[in-house]
Structure formats: structure tokens, C-alpha cells
Sequence to fold (692 residues):
Amino acid sequence: MEFLADIVLLTDSTFRIATPLILAALAGLVAERSGIVDIGLEGKMLAAAFAAATAAAVTGSPWMGLIAGIGASVVLALLHGYVAISQRGNQIVSGMAVNIAVAGIAPTLANFWFRKGGQTPLLTDESRFSAINLPFAEALQDVPLIGPFYSEIISGHNLITYLTVLLIPATGWMLYKTRFGLRLRAVGENPEAVDTAGISVVLLRYQAMIIAGILCGFAGTVLSTGLGAGFIRDMSAGKGFLALAAMIFGKWKPVPTLLACLLFGFVDALQGRLQGVELPVLGEIPVQFTMMLPYVLTVIILAGFVGKIQAPRASGIPYEKDH
Amino acid sequence: MSVADNKLPWWADSILLPVLNLLAAFLVSGLVIWGLGEDPYIALSYIVEGAFGFEEGISYTFYYATNFVFTGLAVSLAFHAGHFNIGGEGQAMLGGLGLTLAVFMIGDVSPLLSVFFAIVGAALFGAAWAYIPAYLQAKRGSHIVITTIMFNFIASALLAYFLVGPLQRPGGQMPESADFPESASLMGIHELLAAVGISFEEGPMNVSLLIALACAVGVWFLLWRTRFGYELRVVGQNPNAARFGGISVSRMTIVAMMISGALAGMMGLNELLGEQHRLLGNFTLGYGFVGIAVAFMGRNHPVGIVLAALLFGALYQGGAELAFEMPTITRDLIVMIQGLVILFAGAMEHMFRKPVTMLFARFAERKAV
Fold:
């Protein structure tokens, strides 16, 4: 029975932890399918987390937080787009620049506005996306099997996690079932052909960056107003990079990327559960080693299981009309 | 655009454009400082005064610059081979670990032997930490940017494990090792100057500055004066041409990354052997990432890297003074300025190229008439 309870708890936290990963990975997916490598997911997430926590703390409304988070992320996405599309600069350097600049400016502003050593104030339950208890969650709690499944795993997440469940098929539909999605994928594979067809490569890529910015804004907002209750220095903790790794592991396709994110979420949830637990044979694993798990797993996956990399062909290459 | 590239004289390309990019980054930083309610001009004067105004300040500036020469060279060498090594931070951590293990293993012997072992330990561990991502990139095609970032996180956890476990100071509570043996220490530059009769205030600047400069000369010689360096640059510029020329791209990737990791690993000489005399958790403080800014600011040339490292050293030391003088400003702001310098000098390096080229073209036309 305890084993079952463990499974329920693990599954529950897997969904919670995977939410920002999935959103960021979808953002990376849209950007890369249009031909832009976005290593700045991390910075955009952090900026969104900061902007959302700040706006929510000041206005008391999580919705204002969401708007601010998305706004901050879209601005940075457009900046990255400007470097990658209009300036034809190095996209990896630009992404790293965004990451580092945000890691500096977010705590600076937090300190300036709130004087709490680079954090934002703790958000009250009304000013964040707190857990939503679905109808009948309590009534069904004691029903065997369905009870814990419904009331623990399905119920009790924040609104953005539920929204993510909708955003996944929406992004897939946009990419594969609309004319815009077809063009977007084409511009990542063969921009010359798209250009020849009279469609603007530049406009398409900027549009892709805006969509990526919005998705990444959700990812950052959920970090500080859904999972957490305020902005903490470096709170993205490499999630943007894990999301990129998940996208590569998912071969730039929505469903495999989703599964990879869930796997990362599960490993992260597992490492949280393993801390201080006495295991058979191994004994207690030092906390530093359990903390390494998601990162080690990422390396192993990239090394062993990805196989032949099939990145979008034009990804990372600036498009020059005049050659 | 490629035609226009050739029209600029060398000094415009390697001095004027970087200076313009830097000014743009500083302009935006000044706006942020102004937005924080402080006077950017006064802030700048605090930075300059703090970095160069007094002997101890100068010593700190060069001390920080030493770190950045190591990490900047590391990023640049990998970049010449066509790879983006973001793992300098982790490689520096492991270098520090290797250095610590080496000095404790050899014990209290003659200083020269002790320092020699420290260098070998630092370089070896740094190189080993870069070897794994390099091998995975070369043989399995694993994206080196992501794997090196993952290795930073892993290195940080590994260092934390050692410092609260096997290497922790006996009886201590902090994540730090016991003090190094007496002999494992690098002489301060002020002591060196005192030996030749020049008095200079005591400070953290130490002999590893000279080691760093020697590394810069070494990297220059390796890249531009040896066959190996030529092959390395060919691989970076055009891997297909290299392959046709009979150069093993995967072998070059691994070797270049290992040299890069060794350079990053040697950062510990300055921090640990020169100043702290013990291993500290997260002693790297993001210096590995600053290496990216230094390398791009310095146009990936050792001379430029040394100058850029000095600039960032001044920014760090001056920034510390600034944070002390202006309470609204914290050291985080210096991190932001680094990011902006990477953005303007690295990613948007072409921003001023077109206008400057046009200006030069018009000037040349007039001359011709």
C-alpha cells in the first residue's frame, strides 16, 4: 500500500515538475522548426518568472503576472530574433548573452524594487496560480484505485499545468495541420524554397519567435507563480537546457518531446524522493549524487539514445537573400 | 556583405568595431543604472577609481583579470576548432579539485615541486572533464553545448560532495577543504617586486598572472605557428575541407577541447594557490562564463583576450567598489553588463560594420577624386 502511495506521489510531482519543461521545450521546438536555434530558453524563462512574480506581487493578480511574464519573454524572443534574423549573428552566442544578462538584471531589479536580497516577496495564495481542486476530488478520495488517481494525480494542479495539457495538442495542430505550420516547418528545412514561393522568410521566423516567446513566458510564469510563490535568484536552474535536450531527444517532434519532458520530470521527482532514503544494496545515496541525476541522464540520453541527429536542416543558419 | 568586409583597414576591424560594440553595451548599462536612480557618470567614476585608483585596487583588477585570461583562452581555443565550450565553469571546478588532490598528495615539499604538481593536477582534471563531452560530440554527435552545460551542473554537485565529504576540513562546518600545505602557494607580485626593490602594496595579484600570460603566448604560438594549430583552425573553419586534407576531425575536436579544459582548469592556480590556499565550494563564481565574453570581446586572439580580460578584471574590481558605494547597485549588475557585452560584441558584432564600412567607402571615394 505504501508502494502505491509512493507511485501516486511520484506521478503527481512528475506532472508538476514537467509543466515548465514541456512549455519551454515546445517553445524551443517552434523556434528550431523555423530555423532558429534558441539556447536562450533559460534566460527567457528566468525573465518571465521574475516579471510574473513582480507583477503578481504588485497587483495581487496572477493574471497580471502571466501577462507580464509573457511580455518579458516575447521581448527577449524578439531580441534574439533580431540578432538571428536581421543581424545574422551567432545564435548560440546571442542565446548565452540573453541567459547571462537576465541572470544579472532580474536580481538587480528585484533588489531595487523589493529590497529582499534579489528575491521578490512571497506571494499569497490569491496572487498566484494555486492548486485547483477539481469537483468531487474530496468525495472520491476514498474510492479504491480511482480515488487516489483522480484526487491526487488529476486534481490539485495549478491552472497553467491544466492549460499546458491543451497547449500541447494546440502546438502540434498548429505545426502540422495549418498552412502557417507547414510554412514554418518549410522555412526551417529549406528557406530558399519558401522565399521562391513568395513567402517572407523573415516574417515567418519572427512569427515563430513570438510564439516561442509566449510559450516560454508560460513556462517562466508557472515557475514563480504556480510551482513556487515568488522569484528566487537562478530559479530556472538549467530547466531551459533540459528542455532543449528533451527536444533533441524527441527528435524535434511534439509527442516524443512531450514524453522526454515527462521522463525528465519523473527523474527529477524521483531524485527528490530518493533524498535521505535508505536503498537496498546501495545504502543511502549522498544528496549531491541524487541531485546530479537529471543532468547525468540528459548526457546519457544525448550520447546513447538519440541516434542519428535530424535537426531541421536550416536550423542555426542565417538566411541571406542575396547569395 | 562579404565584399564589403574586405574594405575595412585592419585597425577599424580589430579596434574600432570592438570599441563601438563595447560603447553600445556600456550605453545600455548606463541607461539601466540611470533607471535605478543613480548617476551613470558617477557610477563609472567609482568603477574606474576602484579598479585603477589605488595600488590594492590595481592588484585586485589584475587578480581577476588572471582568471579571465585562463577562461577566455579556453573558450577561444575551442572556438577556433569550431566548438562552443560553455563548460569552462565546470572544468575550472574540476581543475580546482585536481589541484587540491595533487597538493595534498605530494604534501609539504619544496615550493617548486608543489606548484608543479598543482599545475599538472589542475590541467589534467580540467582536460579530463572536457574530454567526455568532446568524445561524445566527436563519436556520438551529442550536442556539445548542452553536454558541457550539464557537466557544469554535475561538477558543481561533485565539488559540493567532496567538500562536505572526504575533503572537508576536519571538524569544519563550511564546504571547504583544509588549508593547503605551506609549500603549495604562489608568490604575490608585490613580493616579487619587493625582491627587485620596488615597493607595491600587498594584494591578491600573484605569479599565476605570469603563468596566464605565458599561456596566452603559448596559445598564440600553437594556433598560428605550428602545423597542429593550422590543422585545428582548418577543422574549425571548414570541417569538410579538413577531412579531404586528411585531418581527423573527431581527433581534433577531442584534443582541442582537452587543451581548452586544461586552460580553464588552471584558473584554480590563481584563485586557490594564489589567494585562498584551500578549496572552496563554487570558487569559480561564474568566471568560466565570463570567458565567453572575454573571448568574443578579444576577437578570439590572445592579445585581444588579455586586453579584454583586463577590461573585465577592472569591471569586477570596480564593480565591487561600486556596489560598496552605491547601495542600490549589487554585483548582479556586473553580471548583466557581461551579458550585454556578449550580446553586442559577440552576437551583434556586425551591427556597426555596415555603417562604418559605408563611411570608409565614402571617405575613400573622396580621396580618389
